[in-house]
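Listing S7. Sequence submitted for prediction.
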Amino acid sequence: MPKSALRRVMAATSALAGALALGLTAVPASATTPLNYAALGDSYSAGSGILPVDASNLICLRSTADYPHVLAARTGARLTDVTCGAAQTKDFTESQYPGLAPQADAVTADTDLVTLTIGGNDNGTFVNAMLACGTAGLLSGGQGSPCKDTYGTSFDDAIDAKTYPALKTALRAVRAKAPDARVAVLGYPWITPAEADPSCFVSMPIASGDVPYLHALQAHLNAVVQRAATESGAAYVDFSQVSQGHDACQAAGTRWIEPLLFGRNIVPVHPNALGEQRMAERTMSVLGLG
């Protein structure tokens, strides 16, 4: 090879090496710096009923296998987990229990990511509806729609009149603490199937006509949560499609939610470890987190 050509090759090689070195040093700090992650929310966020229990705060019945811990482990995020069983939207700005700080206090100007599942406990929506419909289902032998006939639109009316504005207030409190953070609001995975499954009555004693009633109630709550999230500039993590076929009526190993009776968690009608794992994975997918 002529010397002039050799010099050109060496010069090009040197330039390429320099460019590669420059590219390596130009990686944004955010690509290597762990996210500051604050996890807020109720028992669906806390993984209540799943072992092992977080011994740092037993009153909240928080699991170290909840979706925030799964997400943090997979992304390397620095997690502050203040999720708590039975939390309502008001507990973002008020103390849920004596000595327990409002959940929004965990969010600071340095917070990069916030996740939360909230709203199901407001007005006792989930607890009251499940207890009322379960009791009515047992008394009716699973026939008809005794819960719907008794309560009609009362649960839905409370969601619109009380839960929706409370969600907006809670999300505004979070946004005020960390205006630049990414906030992800998770919907609730399906608890019941869309239609009654007679084989499920033993573990979920809901009358056949009340199964679609409860399913529609949950769809309404999720729609309100999504609306509040969107209007607050937060991302909404939708489970309406991905959780189909994983409700409490499915077999162990398939279901994400444990049934009212004969389940494997100490807290019924809540996500199991698989459900929390899938909630974390869906959230990571929506947010583009690797």
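Caption to Listing S7: primary sequence and predicted structure tokens for the chain studied. The longest strand covers residues 36-41. Helices lie at 3-25, 43-46, 67-75, 125-139, 146-151, 154-177, 211-231, 273-287.
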